[in-house]
Design brief:
It contains 3 helices and no strands. By secondary structure, it is mainly alpha-helical.
């Protein structure tokens, strides 16, 4: 059923994290309805807006890392490509920052 996708542990953890975030945000919204607020993003947002923006940002960070990882290997004279865990950690940190301060 899922043969079309390369289900490596980082990919599985990334998608599992997204599912858990959506479940958590649903429960949080039911217990405490959100209000619009203005952070450092250039617009007023709700928690759901910030989650969506953060998930898009996380996807772009991961895609950019995959795009440059082979070049990084050459530039930094590495024997192997850098670990995808680096982009996972950076993307989750960016998501947390957008959720908290955005």
């Amino acid at each position: 059923m899922f043969e079309w996708m390369a289900w490596t542990p980082p990919v599985a953890i990334f998608f599992t994290s997204i599912v858990l975030m959506l479940i958590g945000m649903t429960v949080w919204e039911l217990k405490s309805p959100t209000t619009m607020r203005k952070g450092w993003l250039p617009m007023e947002t709700t928690r759901g807006d910030r989650l969506f923006i953060g998930l898009l940002s996380a996807a772009y960070v991961n895609l950019a890392f995959v795009a440059v990882s082979e070049k990084l290997m050459t530039w930094l004279s590495l024997e192997n490509e850098p670990s995808i865990w680096i982009s996972f950690i950076v993307s989750m940190a960016l998501l947390a920052l957008i959720m908290r301060k955005g």
